[in-house]
Design brief:
Radius of gyration: 21 Å
Number of domains: 2
Strand content: under 5%
Number of helices: 15
Largest sheet: 2 strands, antiparallel
Shape: globular
Structural class: mainly alpha
Distance between the termini: 45 Å
Helix content: over 70%
Length: 281
Amino acid sequence: MNFANIWNHPKTSAAGLLIAVASIAGVLSQQGITLGKAGTGTVVSLLTALATALLGLLAKDPEAASQSAATDKSASRQARLGAWMLIALLIPLPWMQGCTGTGVAQDIVNWTPALQSAVATVDSTAALLAPADAPIFSAATQGFDAASNLLVAQAKAYLANPSAGVLAQLQTQVVTLQQQVNAALLQAARIVDTASQQHALAAIQAVGTIATSILSLVASVSSKAAVAHMAAQSGVKLAMVRQYRNDERAAEMVAAHYGEPLTLARAQVAQAAQAQVNAGF
């Protein structure tokens, strides 16, 4: 081992160390090793969060970007760093692991203002559409109010009584909302008028981002059998609506909700979507 490389390439070495920390923490979490509590989470999940966040900041380092433009050598180093960042995206992220049922229920409740605002936007969007398109949109989204209200109510019920029975109801309801969103996206995509279609998809997308986030949270505290059952109830798969989703807007919403860097939110959105596809949603 040439220890001089550590000093010659400090950013690359730092990235490697952070990836090692996140990787080891991911393995420990999968084995049920927590190393103790840290707030509402665990020490292992905190280490993963810090390592992933620092990787995001390191990848956006202005100095590194400037050096990469200056010489081929530095460009090569930056390319390797980018590859390592891609590997880091495959590491389980804190919002999808190490969660407690009560913590998940509280997080869902915390999404309530954003969910209510998104549904209210859906309710008012029909007025912005062409007359021929408004009825199509209204029919596609008519169940959003009831489904979102019931989901929040069940999250509050689970927060008060974190039992298996209430969790099962929460699992059913989050899939119900997710399916309504996916079906609405397919319906909105059939709108011919370009302006109407853009308004419709954007409104539905906002509700969909929150539904996807909540689905990931619920899945993180559910057994493999329960997740498989949830996926089996998903007739409209994510792959069928992927082209109608705006991942950048979803990342912005997640970053704002959790108060985290956009880089990290992009990774979370991408990983959550891929995990759900892999699970059969």
